[in-house]
Amino acid sequence: MSYCAKVGKSLVKSVKITGAACHVHSTYTQPDVHAFCFTVSNPTLANTSAIPLTYKEKAIRNALQTSPFGANPGLRQMLAQLERCYVRNGELPAPRPDDRHRSLFSIQLANLRFRWLDIIGSAGAMPPQITVVGPTQAGKSSVINWLLGQDAAVASPLAGFTRHPQGFAYGLEQEPLAALQRFFEPLQARSLADLPPEDYRYYGFHSALSEAPRLGAPVVIWDTPDFDSIDSERYRGGLLRAIALSDLLVCVLSKDKYADQSVWELLSLIEPLGIRSLICLNKTPAAAAETLIRSLTEKWRQSRRDTTPPILTLPYLSPQANEPQGVDALLAATRSAIQRQERKDGTPGLKQFIATHWELWLAPVRVEQRAQQEWRSLVEGAALSANQIYRRDYLDHPHHYGTFQRALAELLTLLEVPGVARLLSQARRIMTWPVRQIGQIGRRWQADAGKLGSEQSVLYQTALHAVLALRQGVAEAAETAAETRPWWLALARELSLRQQAIIDQFSTAASAYAREFEPEVEKTAQGLYERLREHPAVLNSLRATRVTTDAAALAVGLHTGGIGLQDFVIAPAMLSLTSLLTESALGHYVQRAAEDLKKRQAAAVDRLFGETLIAALLRLPEGMPRDTGFFIPAETIEAAERELAGKPRKS
Fold first, then answer.
1. What element of type H or E holds 251?
2. Distance between the two ends of the chain, CA-based, in angstroms?
3. At a CB cut-off of 8 Å and minimum separation 6, what does 523 contact?
4. How far is it, in rounded angstroms, from Cα 250 to Cα 138?
């Protein structure tokens, strides 16, 4: 069985503990998380708490006991990448920007919860974490002070006064304190008095060695920024961090704020995490308490499906009192909650949270994937059209197709036709040529490539036609697309920049294909020759024909560069030779050989299009600026979804 553990920044290679062989098989690093995955052949560590363990060994045992999400690295990496994309693409137009903001916040919360599960799985015993949340001026800081029995949190009548998460830790040892610091990285801890109002790279932290005075146990209470003010998005990251590590959520509301939409959006958002909750109705007139409790209970039932948590009411604080009536009941409910709190594996709640928000998170990714699929369809359509043009203008063209004639030229060199055999032999031995031939060197391919109808020319033109057609298709898509317009515009720019390079690359590949296909031509010629040898009468008849001699002379010219392929194809002697072969006893075999050669050539050109032109075009989005889309491969999403569903990873 696979597990994961975090051991500071030290990665364990292998370790044996009480007969449980733990072998590390992979490591991964996320922002602020350095972890290792390992396999246990005999996991007996769950019952070894009495055995003295090293720090690293304790990390492994805790991982065995809690089994956090380290066994699902694909899902973790997918969500980390998704968060980076949402942050990076924050300025992209969206039909519903609010959905994008909500998605970013919930993804960040999931990733933070991931991190916390890793940390508590490796840090040993962690005291309960109580997070106090609420809208502006609900009295969160005052409630914290009443719970602690001292003025720890700074309360202010100003809306939005608290802009950093602020922790009040009591009775913590060094290891839990270090774990909290790791969780909040890269944020840095500062004393409450030193927090800069507009700099959100810090969090407040106060630590005391004694236990919390009123709660009577080691505990950390977190004061949080509001979530309903205009500026709250600027510092919402601190709120999400405090919620992500929470074992108990105390939601402080007032009669003026309890029905606000922002309150119930937050409470609905975090429901799948399964965090235990209390509701404190602060500043509540005694006469209205019962009515407010009934109304709040109904709002809870409308917004959430779980059981309504305890609702405690606190009246306005009178000038003569240090704290309102009802604090004792709030203290009792809080003590009961943390005393009964047994930190369970948070993985099921996190999985449920992820599953609840999954499709909303992936909505813009799905839209982009449809655009990428549309691009693939455009490329495949353009390639199909290019292939059809190639067949029309070369393979199936009665005058331009010359590959089989090249096979006949090879056949003639094998026949050593009387009258030209000596000439052929000399041509193969000659190393230098008369001056008049020097200008013909290289004509065999280059001149033919420049002539309309030659294979190389047709291939070049079809590739150029495909790219130009795609540029038009991309421009039309950019005009009609709404959500993916920046993606299409970026693709259009990339295609414009890469067009010539793609064509040049294809031309180079086409020349290589022509050279590599020559053995197929020779194979066809060899096959014809072997069949002719089986029919001596036909062979002798051909050798006795003046047409054959003339054609062989043309073959010499083709091999020596004296004539071009097009001249060779349309020469009357070659046309006559082809007719003689097809009308002979071998006619059926000759036609079949010609068709087979054409099929092999069509398949080779099809591969040429697929491996060079289509492949290069499909890779174009990889070069686009990253801020124009998400660029998350479908297989990455599929792997994460398999892990989310609890299915084994594909090997």
1. strand 248-254
2. 15
3. none
4. 12
Alpha carbon distances (Å) from 603 to 282, 341, 598, 600, 609: 78, 69, 9, 5, 10
Omega within 30 of 0 (cis) for the link into 186: yes
Strands 202-208 and 166-170: parallel
pLDDT digits (tens, 9 = 90+) for 122-159: 776 789 999 999 999 899 999 999 999 888 888 877 77
For residue 194, the one-letter residue type is D
Q: Own/partner pairs for 412-416, CB < 8 Å, 24+ apart?
A: 412/548, 412/551, 412/552, 412/555, 413/552, 413/555, 413/559, 414/525, 414/526, 414/529, 415/529, 415/532, 415/539, 415/542, 415/543, 415/548, 415/552
- DSSP code of 649? P
pLDDT in tens, 524-549: 988 887 887 777 776 666 666 544 55
Helices 174-184 and 97-122, packing angle to 10 deg = 150
3-state secondary structure of 78: helix
Which positions ≥6 away from 565 have C-beta within 8 Å?
402, 405, 406, 444, 448, 454, 558
Least confident of 48-52, 200-204, 387-391, 426-430: 48-52
Sign of CA dihedral 471, 475, 476, 478: positive
Q: What is the residue-averaged pLDDT of the chain?
A: 79
Task: Please work out, in degrees rounded to the nearest 5, the angle formed at the alpha carbon of residue 14 by the alpha carbons of 9 and 20.
Answer: 120
- How many Cβ atoms sit within 10 Å of the Cβ of residue 322? 11
Identify the DSSP state of 587.
H
Contact assessment for residue 594 and residue 398, using Cβ atoms and an 8 Å cutoff: no
Q: What is the pLDDT of residues 358-369, one digit of tens each?
A: 999 999 999 999
